[in-house]
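thought: user wants a sequence for this fold. calling inverse folding tool.
action: design(structure=
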């Protein structure tokens, strides 16, 4: 088998994502179902699958890079077990002394070229028969990765997204309530078709959750900052606050201050596993007018005279 990096067309420094993207592109290009009757394409598809199988496994990739295994995953000479001078695979005796190593000498236990030569021959035989009993190919279809974007509200409450697969099939993906950003959903049997009657791979759908302009999520709770006017904070008022279910009326208590937090029970994010729904926390932020008018300024000047006890930084030790 050729070098798996060459098969996938990637550099040896390629990341796992680079390798995955290269495999997806080539698997779609060479899949036998998309190229019926093309034996050469089927062979290329097998080669691409084998290359990805090795490079997508971090341990196998590392061992290949170190020269411990070959492109087919077989132990190279000098690594793992070693056969005796006249043993074939599994220790079976090998008769005849006419086999020549690449250096021109007789093939023996101390000749790494001869060992590699016989390993390639018998390894290929083993792989051919294990793949399809000696008469055909049987391989599970590859998984295929996808990505869908959903709004903050849809991720929290649940939704459906239509997805077109690489096979051309269109399906509706169920986004469960409470889905978090970068959640990966596995859709069984929705990947690439298998060969020789083997099952199809899976579709792996990563959910990207958009940010919300007002809400932030902490576990199953939603947090929001809501501005209130000076009169609302001092005198108290009923204001409307957005939630996932729409706006609700909230009472601002008289004398509320910036940082006052109001709890809206059950207005958070559903958690189907725990069978509970989080809460929404409303943090009040007292806002002055953009440009305080003369009347307000005059009132504050009069009110603040003689208010030495009104020192908001004293408790913090800030003079």
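)
observation: tool returned 319 residues.
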């Amino acid at each position: 088998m050729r070098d798996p990096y060459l098969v996938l067309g990637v550099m040896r420094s390629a990341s796992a994502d680079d390798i995955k993207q290269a495999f997806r592109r080539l698997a779609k290009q060479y899949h036998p179902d998309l190229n019926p009757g093309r034996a050469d394409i089927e062979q290329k598809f097998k080669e691409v699958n084998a290359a990805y199988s090795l490079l997508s496994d971090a341990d196998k990739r590392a061992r290949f890079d170190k020269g411990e295994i070959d492109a087919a995953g077989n132990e190279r000479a000098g690594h793992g077990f070693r056969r005796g001078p006249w043993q074939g695979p599994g220790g079976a005796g090998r008769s005849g002394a006419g086999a020549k190593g690449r250096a021109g000498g007789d093939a023996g236990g101390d000749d790494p070229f001869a060992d590699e030569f016989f390993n390639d021959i018998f390894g290929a035989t083993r792989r051919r028969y294990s793949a399809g009993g000696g008469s055909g190919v049987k391989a599970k279809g590859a998984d295929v990765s996808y990505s869908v974007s959903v709004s903050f509200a849809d991720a929290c409450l649940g939704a459906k997204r239509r997805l077109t697969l690489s096979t051309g099939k269109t399906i509706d993906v169920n986004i469960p309530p409470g889905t978090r950003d970068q959640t990966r959903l596995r859709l069984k049997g929705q990947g690439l078709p298998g060969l020789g009657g083997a099952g199809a791979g899976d579709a792996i759908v990563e959910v990207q959750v958009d940010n919300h302009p007002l809400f932030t999520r902490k576990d199953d709770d939603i947090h929001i900052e809501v501005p209130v006017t000076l009169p609302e904070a001092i005198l108290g008022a009923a204001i409307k606050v957005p939630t996932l279910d729409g706006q609700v009326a909230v009472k601002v208590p008289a004398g509320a201050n910036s940082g006052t937090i109001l709890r809206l029970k059950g207005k958070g994010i559903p958690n189907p596993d725990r069978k509970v729904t989080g809460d929404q926390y409303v943090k009040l932020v007292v806002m002055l007018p953009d440009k305080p008018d003369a009347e307000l300024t005059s009132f504050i000047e009069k009110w603040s005279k003689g208010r030495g006890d009104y020192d908001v930084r004293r408790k913090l030790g800030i003079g």
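thought: summarizing for user.
answer: Here is the designed sequence. The chain has three domains: 4-132, 144-209, 216-316.
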